[in-house]
Inverse folding.
């Protein structure tokens, strides 16, 4: 067992013996969990610090200070599965950071997660959609629990819906969540709306929030990791 894993296991035993950790302990645990790939719990713990500090005002300044540090944001937006994502995304002309932003929203980078409706894996592919994509890719076998297959299928489908809507990412992201049929209906009904107005007019609450969250994720990945963007907004961390 490596030293990092041993330290993690010792911390986990100590942490779990407490009824509720202090805010500094929660911050430390969130960072550790993200560092060892426990993204779902780690991201939740860091996001939850604002709520915790609202309950304990003496920590509000401390949490604001943490959130002003770039390292906090790098932890919230990790480069999980980046080599595989970049490889497959670039092969179909999708921005890898958009794919990561979508993956972060879909699964919090949990490779074997299942949704209540049966969507599978990192990019939450429905089995029937997987069969459709496999046919398009001339694949006889695939495993949606496999990060490589799931990312390949997810990026292919994200590119497919982009092509359907002339590379309009808002419509493509909405289609990824709600299906192209629903989005086609909304486009027909709201032809003259601005992008922001179109998002506000999405009738499905889940899809409206989903599109906003994926776009926010995408922007944060760009400003953190793409030199073309972080030069435009240096040291701007809320």
């Amino acid at each position: 067992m490596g030293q990092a894993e041993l330290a993690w296991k010792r911390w986990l035993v100590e942490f779990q013996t407490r009824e509720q950790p202090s805010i500094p302990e929660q911050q430390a645990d969130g960072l550790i969990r993200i560092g060892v790939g426990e993204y779902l719990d780690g991201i939740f713990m860091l996001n939850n610090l604002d709520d915790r500090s609202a309950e304990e005002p003496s920590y509000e300044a401390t949490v604001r200070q943490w959130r002003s540090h770039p390292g906090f944001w790098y932890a919230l937006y990790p480069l999980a599965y980046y080599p595989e994502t970049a490889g497959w995304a670039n092969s179909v002309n999708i921005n890898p950071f958009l794919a990561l932003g979508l993956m972060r929203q879909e699964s919090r980078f949990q490779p074997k997660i299942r949704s209540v409706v049966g969507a599978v894996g990192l990019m939450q592919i429905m089995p029937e959609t997987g069969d459709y994509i496999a046919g398009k890719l001339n694949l006889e076998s695939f495993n949606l629990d496999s990060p490589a297959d799931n990312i390949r299928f997810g990026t292919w489908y994200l590119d497919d819906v982009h092509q359907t809507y002339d590379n309009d990412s808002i419509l493509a992201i909405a289609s990824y969540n709600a299906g192209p049929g629903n989005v086609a209906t909304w486009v027909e009904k709201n032809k003259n709306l601005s992008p922001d107005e179109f998002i506000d007019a999405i009738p499905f609450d889940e899809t409206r929030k989903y599109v906003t969250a994926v776009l926010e994720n995408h922007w944060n990945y760009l400003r953190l990791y793409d030199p073309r963007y972080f030069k435009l907004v240096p040291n701007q961390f809320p």
